[in-house]
């Protein structure tokens, strides 16, 4: 594996795809900073890294603006510049709308969407000032669940749709200075998807997801989506006429709901 030599801050690195991506990037001798709410989780990931370089552990609750500011300031005292930020933080509590609680709404919006706006607000002025070398990278992980309104997927899907919109705007407004990328995974085997009680087509491991992201980091692509055999189907569904889409998914939802009641 080729050396990467980039300084990378991964937010949401204590588990799931974020942890697997940290392990993958460490093999390239990238300088790494890992952030998440779970200190124990971050330390566990750090122990798995194959790197000769020091790894920074900076715990952070991304829903707290001041904590993000503090971590960003601390990071800039350790590194002369930050080459890449990968936002992998997220919570997942999908449900039908009649079962969505206020707590689920607040947590999903705070972690999945509001914190992404916070991050942009905190780091963008400094990222836009970087003039030497390659463009700095700003990468966000959303989901194909954000492509269209899906039954039994709220409030998660709505926050991911908002995140997709935010990242597309970022690419439009600052893409000439910053390499903005969007990650849209399908089903990945994590502690979050373990909550699902339905069949997940084309599900892949966190290691496979991390490899797909790593392979696309230096590409000119805006969107990194995987596994392709599933995400291309979701893209086709995204462009179905509204009448077809609502008829099909309403029927599938009603069929599934009836089966669950038996």
From TrEMBL:
One of its GO terms (molecular function) is oxidoreductase activity. Keywords: Oxidoreductase. GO terms for cellular component: membrane. It comes from the Bacteria. Belongs to the short-chain dehydrogenases/reductases (SDR) family. This is Short-chain dehydrogenase.
